[in-house]
Structures are given as structure tokens and as C-alpha cells.
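sanity check this record:
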Amino acid sequence: MQFKRLRRLLYWLLPVVILGIVLSRIDVASLVDHARRVNTGYLLGALLVFPLFMLLGGLRWNRATRRYCRAEVPLRFSIQHYWIGQALGLFAPGSLGWDAYRALVAGRHYGHYLMNAAVILVEKLLALLACVTLVSLLAPFVTVAAPLLREVISWAHLLGYLVAGTFVLAIYFSRLPPIRALALKAESYILGLAARALKRAPAKPPDRLFEAVMEPLRSPGFLLELLLVSFAILGLSAGINQLLFQSLGQPLPFLVNLFLAPVFYFLFVLPISVGGVGVREAAYIALYGLFGVPAETALLVAFLMFCGDLCNTLIGAILLYTNKPQGNDAACHRV
């Protein structure tokens, strides 16, 4: 009990400590001066683009859920609950609260909870694959020879091999009888854990859950579709950063923002900070500083990105408040 309390305290204090260290090294007067000179046209343009994150994220989740549940999942349902999930998961570690909500709400309406948890896992793995692929493709065009960037590129290559290898091995070995038998035992164990956690028998899973999870992964078209949407989300993030730097009069090649967007994505999904506070600001200063961006400018852009996230969160909170339970919308129990 004492350890849990200490861990919770450290979790809430960490962002404050990191942010305090960041602000102690910033020229506050220069920061205020940068804020006064912001171009409101570019700033508003960037803020208006933020909702597209929810549309693209909801689309990716919708396509994956439709394929796994084999149900006509309305796009409106996916976008609405993707937005609500962000509002509920803002102060959870990484995106864990967001993902847990999506797995629960989709499981309640369109299928078994474990199947929808698999949807989230596949979505995350493909997003990670898009990140490391983009970093690897743009690495030759990054001319800054900094040790930190070399480390980022090296880790991106390693993660790329690991994720791609995981998909290939999982698809190949899942066909082998010993692996299938082992998967069925693991499946029974997981269902037992779920039953104990829920204190009741879980909903009946689809026949051969392991096979149902693996089947879509053998479809290159399905994987490519989700991968392309993930690339679009990263491109959108880079575009917003580009507009924000333009609003502060900071010249920066778009390729720099496109290269750093997947790095930021990976950092912010790590469960080490509340809403990415502190980690976001430190990462922006450290990484953009390698490209000659003043610390005050990078910090202000980080603050503006957080404001955009808060606006999206507010929209999600409004949708949560106005959302009325619809009952079981065409549950899917066949896979």
C-alpha cells in the first residue's frame, strides 16, 4: 500500500519537477516577447487543424474494428468515442486510459472485450511501425550530426526490425500446430483472469479467439490501409508544428518537423507523465534545439501544442456530456 501511494505521488510530481527544471533554464522575458509577437492567423490555422487528429484516429480505429468484429460499425460512433476517450484519458499514463475506454466501449457494443483489446494492440503496433519507418526514410536528409539524433535513428532502425519481425514471425508461426495449442492454453488463462477481474463470467468469446486475432494480419491490404492512416496522422502533426513555428516567425524546413513528429509520438505514449506535461516541453527544447531553434521558441510551441490538445479534450468532454446510451447497437459475436 505504501509503495502504491509513493508511486502515485511520484507520478503526479514528476511533470511538475521536469517542468520546473525546464522553466529554470528559460529566459522568461524572451518567452513573453515571443508570445506577444505571435501571428494569430497561423496560430488559428494550426488550432483549427487539431480536430483532424480525431477524425483520422477515429477512421483508423473504425476500419480495424469493422474488420475484426465483422460488423457495420458507424464511423460516427468511432469518431465520437475516440474523442471521448481522449477526454477521459488525458490524465492517465501515456494513452492507457484512452485505449482502455475504447476497448470497453467497442467491446460492449460490437464484440468481445479481448477482441477489441487486440484491435487497439494492432493499431498501436502499426502506428509504431509507421513512426520508425518515417524516421528511417528521412534520416539521410537530416544533415545535423548530433549524437542524440544518431541515437534516435539507431533506435528507430532497431524498433523497426523488431516490429516488422514480430508481425512476420507471428503470422508464420501462428499456423504451426504447437503454437496454436499454446495459444489456446494462453487464451483460456487470459479468459480466466478476465472472469476473476470482472467477478463474473466474461462474454462468450468468438470461436478460436487466437485465430480470429491473427486472420486480419494475414491481409496485406488491411495492414497497408491502417499504416497509411498512421502516416497521415504523423504528417498532420508535422503540419501543425510547421504552422506554429511559422506563427512565431521561426524558419524551419518541413522535413525537420516530419522527422521529429514520430519521435514525439513515441515519447508521449510512454506512461511516464500526466498528459505528457514536462516530457513534451523538455523534448521540444532538446530536439528542436539541435536544429538551431531557440529554447524559448520551442517551449512556446510545446505550450501551444498542449493548448490544442486541451481544446480537443474539451470537445471530447462535451461529447461525453451529451452522449446518451443507445443500448447494444448490433453486437457482433461471430468472427
